[in-house]
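Hi P.,

Sorry for the delay on this. The queue was packed all week, but I finally got your sequence through. Input first:
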Amino acid sequence: MQRTNLKTHVKKGDQVEVIAGNHKGATGAVLEVLPAKQQVIIEGVRMIKRHTRRSQQHPEGAIVEREGPIHISNVKLVAKAG
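Then the structure:
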């Protein structure tokens, strides 16, 4: 069982910069922190395409672009939220 109350150096809303990996140099606001997986989701960084099945919103199905997670050790805090 993993602990979900791990302390992280970034919070939701903080401005961060990616310091390693394919998206090095990209900046954006933290949308979500996933402490159990030690990952963060950053606005506009690591855009992935998800195929969705038919629904009322997408009667034909769709390919939706959204942000993917990045390991928390690959981001650096630029400005705190608030």
